[in-house]
């Protein structure tokens, strides 16, 4: 019901698309996405971060926007409708919508010629969910490419040490010999493929 109310308000331009990212996290994502050509976002929701990535990437770049957008009670996905309209407003590069889970999209992406140079993982934040996305995507990132992970560490304002995504990041990703830590901004972790 809350989603439907927000959808009506958004439609009337009385509410904005929503995101759980902070302003500094979005600025950090944009900085690392700048001039990248093969970008992937896993977990789009209303497309707020997708818009930032699209604005920052190269003008001849392509951004895979991945989200299963399961249909709600009305038979369609409200977040998908909002995201498509919001992301279409940004006149830069191309967006390839993938109505798939992160793991399903990785199987499709693996058939492409190019590797990704930027991946933002913000889909299923359970331990099993991020594990599946990490294992599916870590070999699809080019050398020097960036993987950004949301809700992957605690910040001054949010204690999420016990979240599955934070545990997996701390115990597995930050110990992966193929990657190095670049920075952590609020609950966002940035790693680079060596
Ligand atoms: C936290 S929101 C993403 C927010 C967006 N990145 C932003 O910051 O504005 C999480 C999204 O992940 C999607 N999702 C859930 N499970 C997923 C999966 N296995 N693969 C990809 N996306 C998934 C949900 O449908 C939801 O839209």
Tell me the helix content. Answer: 25-40%
SS-based structural class?
A: alpha/beta
What distance separates the N and C termini?
A: 46 Å
Q: What count of structural domains?
A: 1
DSSP, total strands: 7
Sheet-strand content, in percent, reads: 15-25%
Radius of gyration: 16 Å
Outline the biggest β-sheet.
7 strands, mixed
Q: Could you say what the CATH architecture is?
A: 3-Layer(aba) Sandwich
Can you characterise this structure?
Strands 3-2-1-4-5-7-6 form a 7-stranded mixed sheet, sandwiched between helices. The chain has helices at 2-11, 23-33, 48-56, 78-88, 102-109, 127-137, 164-171, and strands spanning 38-42, 62-66, 94-98, 116-121, 141-149, 179-185, 188-193. The chain starts with a helix and ends with a strand. The protein has one domain (20-193): Rossmann fold (3-Layer(aba) Sandwich). The protein is of the alpha/beta class and 194 residues long. The model has no long low-confidence stretch (mean pLDDT 97). It is built from 7 helices and 7 strands. It binds S-adenosylmethionine (SAM). S-adenosylmethionine binds next to helix 3.
